[in-house]
Amino acid sequence: MIHHNMAGRRVGAAVTAAVLSMALVTGTVSADTLSTQTAAEQSAESEDAALVTSPSAESGAEKAEESSSDTAAAEEETAAAEENSTAETESAVSEASADSTAAAESQEDSTLVKAAETQDMYRLYNPNSGEHFYTADANERDHLKSVGWKYESVAWRAPKTSETPVYRLYNPNAGDHHYTTNRSECDMLTKAGWKLEGIAFYSDDAKGVAIYRLYNPNCTGAGAHHYTASANERDNLVKVGWKYEGVCWYGAVSDNVTPTPTGEATPTPTGSVTVTPTPSATPIPTVKGTTVYNGVDYSAVYDFNYYVNHYADIRNAYLNNPNGAIQHFVDYGMKEQRRAIATFDEKSYRYEYRDLRAAYRRDFKKYYLHYMQYGKKEGRVATGVTTMQNAVTTFGNRDFSAIYDYQYYVDHNPDVLAAFGDDDYAAIEHFACHGLKEGRIAKASYDQNTYNSLRTAVSKYNFPKADAVLNQIGWDLRAAFNWSVGMTYYGHTADMPSTPNNGYQWFADYGFTHHKGNCYCMAGTFYEMAELINQRYNLGYTFRQVYGHVNNRNGTKAPHSWVEVTYNGATYVCDPNMVNEWPGTNGYMNTYGGSNMWSITREGYMN
Length: 607
Description:
Elements: H1 18-26, H2 39-50, H3 61-70, H4 72-96, H5 98-106, E1 118-125, E2 132-135, H6 138-146, E3 150-159, E4 165-171, E5 176-180, H7 183-191, E6 195-202, E7 209-215, E8 225-228, H8 231-239, E9 243-251, E10 292-293, E11 296-297, H9 304-310, H10 312-318, H11 322-333, H12 346-352, H13 354-360, H14 365-378, E12 394-395, E13 398-399, H15 406-411, H16 414-420, H17 424-435, H18 448-459, H19 464-473, H20 477-485, E14 488-489, H21 504-514, E15 516-517, H22 519-537, E16 542-551, E17 557-567, E18 570-574, H23 576-581, E19 600-605
Parallel strand pairs: 14-15
Antiparallel strand pairs: 1-2, 1-3, 4-5, 4-6, 7-8, 7-9, 10-11, 12-13, 16-17, 16-19, 17-18
């Protein structure tokens, strides 16, 4: 509203909408769909906070990154010795190659990167997931070797600093790492759920040694991208189906050596699982291992001999420690989608049952727990399913099945496959919120008029600024309301209208851009965020931004705006500006005429 001069009393407790809060907490899954979680399942989940982390068994590069942080001081002490050794190696390489010597002599001193300013980039390979990993940290390298990764050599040398950082991201769903100098690519991936891990190393601004980037279109898990300084390796991969994506960054010019890795990247067959068990060449003898941990029996999803036989890092760490193996499985293995018994495959179980996907999405551990508690007794299929069954086609109260097919969409959009993996709920959300507006095709045959009609319908809710804020604060209605309440009041200047004529989107854009504004801005920002939340969680609410006036105590009226929420025939009022002006009051989900409300009168709805 336009700032009011009215002495108001503090209001009491607001009328709440419990059903709204519950919908946001529990999602949209009906209680009839799933078996009720028992105390045993809850106990299993609570172990995450109680278990002691086992450094020797921690798999993946996240644990290694923590290790590198703890040992940074030791690495600094050995850096000088490593650099001297590197300088001697460079001299030998230079003397052995007449062409290299001539090229080096023709370089101006100003273009060379001194050996003291460069560092080795180590390359490792995970035989379980198919991922190649690159790090300048010798401690990270050594830790990964200790848990089963194969060290393949120095991949190239990188400057210790430059104007072009290379960022490292981690996909917690696929267990994959990605490297890029492109901040826009970073932003896109973090929006899709990747974790930005910071600057991994630097590109050479003198553009000395080209590092090539390739993409495997058949890979559905880790290892979809590969980076190499070897033109020969690049060409071999292209011949077997990889896509060459160009030069991604550069190694240091003074260290222009192309290492020959001990192993090269290979295509991953279509449909491969996220973590592929790698059987031991010589299976270990059968050992009796416990299936009970903290009083919970995991025998439906876990067998010690299967677990240690199929994962090299587990075998190396727990061959003689059955108790440690089951602790690792409970603490990490289920979250990492590791298969630990022949009769249960988490991916197959998830693919088969849409009701479970709706409830658990990519919380992989819960699929194991559900099968333990209910699925096995119910006779649910737990192996053998390799394609998504009954993929969801609805989003935001709309059915897109006439123009959308999950398998077609991920097969024909590699970026969607890479970002969202095998999550059919994330895929339909991407299509409804982005793909349709971008004109992407999601079905082999469809009616163009239907496509155009749905495209027009969803374009009404194209709120990128609201989406960006929700990704920061969380997709929660009350959090969105509080964000709008927290704006700085701004309504006494020529550039801030006091009428609704500009429309809700103008006021919302102003509020999102500046985090300040009048009552129209506060209501507009909340309205757009509420609409996106309503669509994502299929809540079934109706949100509308209202314009009208508020009655001041001196008998005057002032322009005002708020948001109406309608659900099951009841109407509620969300008024962020009231809370902004009266801190401590509750303007969330009140009712018209209530004792805790301003005296407001609706005149119409914002366009």
